[in-house]
Amino acid sequence: MRTSPLHAAMRYVAIVLAGFIMAAPLLFMVSGSLKSAAEVAAFPPKLLPETPIWQNFVDAWNFLTPQVIGNTFIFSLGIVGLQLLLSLPAAFALAKIPFKWSAAVLGTLIVPMFIPGNLTLIPLFIVTFQLGWLNTYAGLIIPMAAQCAFAILLFRQFFATMPAGLIEAARIDGASWGRVLTSIALPLAKPALATFCSISFLTAWNMYIWPQVIAPNPVNRVINVALAPLAGGENSVISPAVGLAGAVIAMLPVLIVFIVFQKWYLKGIAGTGLE
Amino acid sequence: MSTPILDMPLPRQGEEKKPVPAERPGSRRAKRVDALTAAAFLTPGLLAFAAFVILPAVGGLVLTFFEWDLFGTPQWVGLDNITRLFGDEDMWQALWVTALFVLMGVVPTILIGFVLAVLINTKLPGIAAIRVFFFAPMIASAAVASLIWVNLYSQRGLINQALSWIGIDGPIWLSDLTWARPALVIMMIWGGLPIVIILYMAGLQRVSDDIYAAASLDGASKWRQIWSMTWPNVWGTTILIAVLQVVGFVSGSFEVALIMTDGGPLGSTQSIALYSYKVAFSERDIGYASALSLFQLVLMIVIVILVRMIVRFRKERS
Predict the structure, then answer these.
(1) Which CATH homologous superfamily contains domain A67-271?
(2) Is the whole-model pTM more than 0.80?
């Protein structure tokens, strides 16, 4: 459809304006993280601080501690890695290895996906508690990594579209199923891997409730658990600007992953809408 | 067992019996190798699934019939926890709060998300970079978003200063009995919009351009085209988004409420999900907390069935 230049210009303005409003709270976070405590609340709001106070980031870093930031990486990458180990072989078996029960297994995996995670939070906590995993990395990671039905279905769908001839040929040449998976299927599955890893990493990094109930202590806690009390006004020692600097630090890794993997990430999210 | 929910291609068994390895095609041995390999590949995933998905789901159901404080021996109490639900004033208030979250949040999220998706669904140069601004709220965690909005909503925060500029004396949003709830809803709408925009954009790609060409020949205005042609064409996407948003506002809303208001003031932001969380983790009344979760699940199923009935009703009328 043709559009006049005037129309296009008006649309640009509308898009930029709407985009600015959507991003405004985040821009407020970034500029606030560099302001003095007085400037954060100043009106009319200053777009940028008079002199950027980098000390806020030093204070935020010291408040969060490298330990907590490291924990968050262990937690997120642990979930992504373990989910890959659990789901890739399972998905491959469901898509490509002929056996009697594949439809039944698939059905069993799908049904609980429709129960929101918060509803099983309490019994999942109890299982983890009974295992003696409170305040451990195992307790943080394993129960969350086990929620891998989404990953299995995603990879299964991808493997199912791979040409059967390719796999046949390798099997006739005497390659084991394990070899077919690692040297033929996986190299071809890079787009699906990019989609899954980005979604899984972002989801894990941004989790709050699970790490809060499983590992609230300072040794094992993750960044969101450390930050949340600042938003509840429980820690008045930390100035709002330092809190916002902490929020920037918490968001930086996911922002980088999001920008790098945007194409695959959005495809995966939109895929949930394709029935 | 078939898979009635997702209409995905099942492994085409007939076709794939052919690829049999070094052993003779179709031989028993080859079939056994296939079955054993499949079992080996599936076992770790299914074990994890059984221990951390099936067991908790069943456990949650069973615990509804017990009284338990996490440490002693669970006591069988029959249906006590379920009957207790109906006489519990806090439950009714939490239910009301949950309903208000849904009523205030879902429709605006859908409508705003749709308009924004239509707006940025264009191939104008440079648009890809600007789109990131629309998606960015999605990657802010509940804690990060809460930190930002607590500052925006504070007594002398940006929002109140802006209001005072036009002569309005703003409330202390998050401690105000009337305004804490809408304040959280506005923030949740903001956080929920990106995924709505993404789903609508995927839906819009499937709408053919031809209908617009015909419409603009007829002289229909842009705004009318959007509501009389685009909107009905993405109806399927709208239903999906509606279901996702209802679930989001019923169950997902409790993270921000827990962080920012702890359900207050006076329970005005305490949804069923948050109430259940508190009963479990503050009062350690596991049985009753499980009953609350179960009740929430029943509610959500009822809502989804209602949505589907409305859809069917509309289809029959048109």
Answers:
(1) MetI-like (1.10.3720.10)
(2) yes
